[in-house]
Write the C-alpha cells for this entry.
Amino acid sequence: MIPSGLFTQIIMLGLAIGIVFAYVQPAFSTIGEIQDDISVYRAERDKVSGVNQQLQQLLDNMLAIPAQDRVALLTYIPDTVDTVAVPRDLQSMAESSGLILRTVAPVQTTNMQLDAERSATVPTTRYAFQITVEGSYQQIKAFLLLVEKNNYPLDIQTLTMQPLEGSFMTATMQLVTHAHLPRPEVAAPVNRRR
C-alpha cells in the first residue's frame, strides 16, 4: 500500500505538471509572441524615424534655398508646360528678330512616357515644338540667341536650313523643353447613344 504522504506528493507533482502544461507554457508562448511583436514594432519605428529624419533634412535643405531661387527653379523647370504659351513666345521671338514665321506647332509624340535622357536624375516630361521661319542668316542667328536666353530651357533637337532667293533662308527646327510632372492624360470621348 502507498503511504498517504507519498500519494499526496504524487498528486501534487501531477498537479504541478498539469499547471505547467495547461497554464504556464501557453503564457510563455504568448509572452514570446508579444516580445516578437515588440521587436518588430521597434525595428519598424526605427525605420520610420530614419525616414522622418531624412525627410526633415531634405525639407531643411529646400528651405535653405532662398525664395527667389525657388521661384526661378520653377520657371526654369516648371511642373507643367503650357503648349499654347510656348508657340506664342516663339512667335514673339521670331517677330523680335525680324523673321517671317511660317509655322509653329507642338509635335505630337506617340510616347507619353517620361523623358529617358533626364529620368535618371530628375523625372521630366518632354515637350517638342516644330517651327519654320524665313529671314536672313543674321536674323536667324538673333532668333537662336533669343531662344538661348529664354526664361525656360528650349533645346534645339534638329535644325535644317535651306537657301531662298537672295540672302534669305528657311530654317526648320524642332525645339524641346521639359517639365517635372507627367502630361495630364486626356480622357477618351465617350460615345453615347440617344
Residues 110-115, 186-194 have pLDDT under 50 and may be disordered. The longest strand covers residues 125-136. Strands lie at 100-106, 125-136, 155-163, 168-179.
